Amino acid sequence: MKNPVPVVLLILCLSVAGCTKTNGLRKAAEQGDAKAEVKLGEMYMNGQGVARDDVQAVFWFRKAAGQGGAVAQYNLGIMYAIGRGVTQDDAQAIFWWRKVAEQAFQVRKAAERGDVDAQYIFGWMSMLGIGVTQDDAQALSWFRKAAKQGSVGAQTLLGFMYQNGKGVAYDNVQAASWYRKAAEQGDVDAQYSLGWMCMNGRGVVQDYAQGVSWFHKAAEQGDAGAQNSLGWAYAIGHGVAQDDVQAASWYRKAAEQGDVNSQYVLGNMYAEGRGVTRDCAQSRAWFRKAGVPVQKMPTCPQ
Questions:
Q1: Any idea what DSSP says for residue 295?
Q2: Element (H or E) spanning 284, and its range?
């Protein structure tokens, strides 16, 4: 099971209170709520609660970006930079990132006035060096201010910074504490991260059952990483009774969202008839999705 540390191209979004259900979120986005538009775009980008769809992600990011949303503008720049949902275009990426940079002064002023969303955004800008000098300590300070006002996104990122020693000394106890605050409010990333910490005894007493419980919460919201981890837990019986059928079911959910590890494991399960009926064609199909060359695919007895 992998440590849930974000990749370099971190895609961030504002937490949207009361919009955890896809239908409610979509309704708010269709009514022009910029925060909902960002969150819906992020859901499409990551396949959380909906089928992954980069074109739809770009559509919603663009709507929010057009309203001046700094997070959406940054995300849209990322999509252009890596060519997801749009034709790769460095000039467009730079265009949107400059839009973010232009807002740095106004965002900071709003943050200093106590605006919780501005505090969150300015913390994010400081962490990534967008429009301001990159400064983890400054980012931590702004995330802490927003987190104390109840910003779920800031609580999650505060947990991440404590867990990884960014702008502060490593402190898994503090990381787990902040993850828990966000997880209890339904933040899927915090739920997955807290589950990982419970499974590995980082910042909390090791508790497989608690870890599985948090993985379940994140997996049910469509998080592929949590679904993969839940498949692993059922496969080896950590925190739950060992159950290959359940393992295959959760691995499939993650595999269908493009999780390579799950695709590979599912290929093995079909080859061995473990949790599923042995099916060599299905086995090869999942190995192909995982990028395994034909000559390196495990043997599947007919």
A1: G
A2: helix 280-289
Q: Is the model's pLDDT at 8 over the cut of 70? A: no
Q: For residue 200, name the pLDDT band (cuts at 50, 70, 90).
A: very high
pLDDT one-digit tens code per residue, 65-92: 999 888 789 889 989 988 889 999 999 9
Q: Could you tell me where the DSSP H helices lie in the chain?
A: 22-30, 34-46, 54-66, 70-82, 90-102, 104-112, 116-128, 136-148, 152-164, 172-183, 188-200, 208-220, 224-236, 244-255, 260-272, 280-289
Is residue 280 within 8 A of residue 270, CB to CB? The reply is yes
pLDDT at residue 113 tops 90: yes
Shortest CA distance to 198 belongs to which of 170, 185, 217?
217
Distance CA 48, CA 224 (A): 7
Residue 154's identity, in one-letter code, is A
CA distances 174 to 157, 181, 204, 217, 254, Å, are 12, 11, 10, 21, 30
* Cα-to-chain-centroid distance, residue 196: 14
- Per-residue pLDDT tens digits for 131-150: 889 999 999 999 999 999 99
Q: Which amino acid is at 29?
A: A
**Is 37 in contact with 243 (CB distance < 8 Å)?**
no
Q: Find out whether 180 and 192 touch, Cβ atoms under 8 Å.
A: no
